[in-house]
Amino acid sequence: MTDIRDLQLMVSLSRHKHFSRAADDCGISQPAFSARIRKMEEGFSLPLVRRGNKFMGFTPEGEVVLKWARKLLLDMEGMRQEIDALNNNLNGKLALGVIPTALPFAAKVSSQLRRQHPNLSIEIHSLATRQIEIRLNDYSLDAGIMYFEDANPETIEKLYEESYILIAPDDLAPRRSGTATWAEAAKLPLCLLTADMRNRQFLDAVFAEINEVPTVVMEANGFTAVLAQVASGAAATIAPRDVAETFLERGSTVHLSLVDPVATHTVGLSIKDQTPIPPMVQALRRAVQDSL
User: Fold this and answer.
1) 20 to 30 A Cα–Cα from 200, which one of 72, 120, 178, 221?
2) Are the beta carbons of 95 and 141 closer than 8 angstroms?
3) Range of the domain at 66
4) 112-121 burial, b for 16+ CB within 10 Å, e for fewer?
5) How wide is the angle at C-alpha 114 spanned by C-alphas 122 and 110, nearest 5°?
6) Closest C-alpha among 143, 153, 162, 149 to residue 288
7) Is residue 79 part of a domain?
């Protein structure tokens, strides 16, 4: 019969993707670890782990067991948190998936959480929208901050509107202050996120709407690399206002609000439906509202 300890072993193996490291994490020997996994497989009469000379992933059946293992362990953790919360001692680990454009807001939220609950540990994972959805569904994330329109409408709530500005080195900027049109931005050498990122798809849709083809000279899969190119003077970019104000000093670059059209997209908080709601998730909701 599978017990809680077996579920912990499965989750640890998923995290480390290595039998020896997972065994160390669980405080048992590798032979004992492997024996318990094989015992689980015998109980289900199915292989759960794909093996070669090393760990090669989970079988489809193993992925199902892993998902339910995370769910059951999450419920146990929620019970422990609720007991601790009775004594104003909320602690544990919160895993939050965040689209790259919302990282500045996530930083505000984590600061609020840590002020209110100093014993909480927070993991922020910068992920694409689709990755957040997948990890919410397999219970490897507690919540996600993502674009509202991409999420399940039953599990997401609106947070704020994301607006966009042109960020350019002095010698590339069309003017020093005021606004710039998307048509003007299209003619500048731009460094943008890669085409698989949702933010880039939004930008491309605006350019298509005004029948402009942007001059994209560089691409990156994260804003750190994008803004580094702007700071070096190599290119301009289009970014959410919060990203620009967080990572680049206004004196070092020119920031122009984009018009014709004014484009915005709604960012939301997505949380897997759970009953009862874990105290850590309730604390997250409060911190999010305090950060708006």
Assistant:
1) 178
2) yes
3) 1-88
4) bbeeebeebe
5) 55
6) 143
7) yes
- Residue 87 burial (10 A CB sphere; 0-12, 13-18, 19+): exposed
Q: How many residues are given for the chain? A: 292
Closest CA to 266 of 128, 161, 152, 130: 161
pTM for the full predicted model: 0.77
* pLDDT tens figures, 25-48: 888 888 888 888 898 888 889 899
Distance of CA 105 to the CA centre of its chain: 12
Which residue in 188, 156, 186, 168 sits closest to 288, CA to CA? 156
Last residue of a domain, one of 53, 88, 123: 88
Domain end point (choices 43, 70, 88): 88
Residue 167 lies in a domain: yes
Which whole-number Å values give the CA distances from 211 to 77, 97, 235, in the listed order? 52, 34, 22
Domain count, the chain: 2
Whether 209 is covered by a domain: the verdict is yes
Domain match, 168 and 260 both: yes
Per residue in 164-179, pLDDT (tens digit) is 999 999 999 999 999 9
- Using one digit for the tens of pLDDT, what is the confidence trace for 209-250? 999 999 999 999 888 899 999 989 999 999 999 888 888 776
Contact 100, 222 (CB under 8 A): yes
**CATH number of domain containing 235:** 3.40.190.290
